[in-house]
């Protein structure tokens, strides 16, 4: 079976992107990272992707001003030009419109640094510490129009330790992010995860 062609969308450091690139090096991995796209030209992840000989593209949202639709059309054109099958958002810091999300429905994953549906949005580690939760973690989910919602594909947790700071907790969560994202992409590429097979509450059956 031919490998699915994947685009990873980033805005920054790209450590999850790197985890996906590393996983995709295995000959039995069902997907290849065919493209890395950043909306920020200075994203450090772009340098790393180029070092790995992966094709990169920049679709700079600033050049489109308020015209979100034009930005997303340019993004979509880049994906089409590289015959992309699946999209992984990995620290991509732009909200995507229902138009774009619908186009990639069932084919686009996101990783969020919390145990969804807890702590949607930003500053998840700080908020988890403030809430005093015993466990915290990360979630890979299908992208739907509502931000940080959508059927869950993979989730893993870590214990919150006494004395944890935002940084120490973030570092432990990041380690599990790097484990679950490649697993989730594998499941999607092999057809073991789909939006259609998900229950209404967003959990995979
Ligand atoms: C990760 O914590 C991810 O869960 C969140 O943004 C961060 C991106 O980090 N969506 P990186 O760019 O993958 O290193």
What's a quick, concise take on this entry?
It is built from 6 helices and 7 strands. The protein is α/β, with parallel strands linked by helices and 205 residues long.
List the helices and strands and how they pair.
Blueprint: E1 4-10, H1 15-23, E2 31-38, H2 44-51, E3 56-58, H3 68-81, E4 86-89, H4 98-103, E5 108-112, H5 124-131, E6 135-142, E7 152-159, H6 166-189
Parallel strand pairs: 1-2, 1-4, 2-3, 4-5
Antiparallel strand pairs: 5-6, 6-7
Structural summary, described in words:
Helix 1 packs parallel to helix 6. The chain has 6 helices and 7 strands; from the N terminus they run βαβαβαβαβαββα. It is α/β, with parallel strands linked by helices and 205 residues long. Strand 1, helix 1 (15-23) and strand 2 form a beta-alpha-beta unit. The longest helix is centred in the last third of the chain and has 24 residues, at 166-189. Mean pLDDT is 95; it is low at 199-205. The chain has a 7-stranded mixed β-sheet, sandwiched between helices. It is globular, with a radius of gyration of 16 Å. The structure holds 5-O-phosphono-beta-D-ribofuranosylamine (GRF).
